[in-house]
């Protein structure tokens, strides 16, 4: 089944809402506001590809966090499959955080 651009946009918004429920356990801010999600691509068939990073390659949740993201996104209505790519290029830095995240962490 092919989805319209509007349907894809709705699925995308739902995915972002779900991503905002996933937290880095060491930082009280969700991974979306932290800037750990580099890209979310959704095909016409609702196959989803997420490109994300972690705050450091040695992050204690390197094994579990990507799987949690994948599992939660897979539960979004109409999502057919989720391909998650973990990258450290470019490496994450605090400038990638949203203003909201910086405010939460007292950086503003």
Automatic annotation (TrEMBL):
Could you tell me what this protein is called? Answer: SUF system Fe-S cluster assembly protein
Q: Which Pfam families match?
A: FeS_assembly_P
InterPro entries given for it? Answer: Fe-S_Maturation_MIP18, FSCA_dom_sf, MIP18-like, SUF_FeS_clus_asmbl-assoc
PANTHER family attached to this UniProt entry: FE-S PROTEIN MATURATION AUXILIARY FACTOR YITW (PTHR42831)
Show where the MIP18 family-like domain sits.
13-83
Fetch the NCBIfam families from UniProt. SUF_assoc (TIGR02945)
Q: Which domain of life is it from?
A: Bacteria
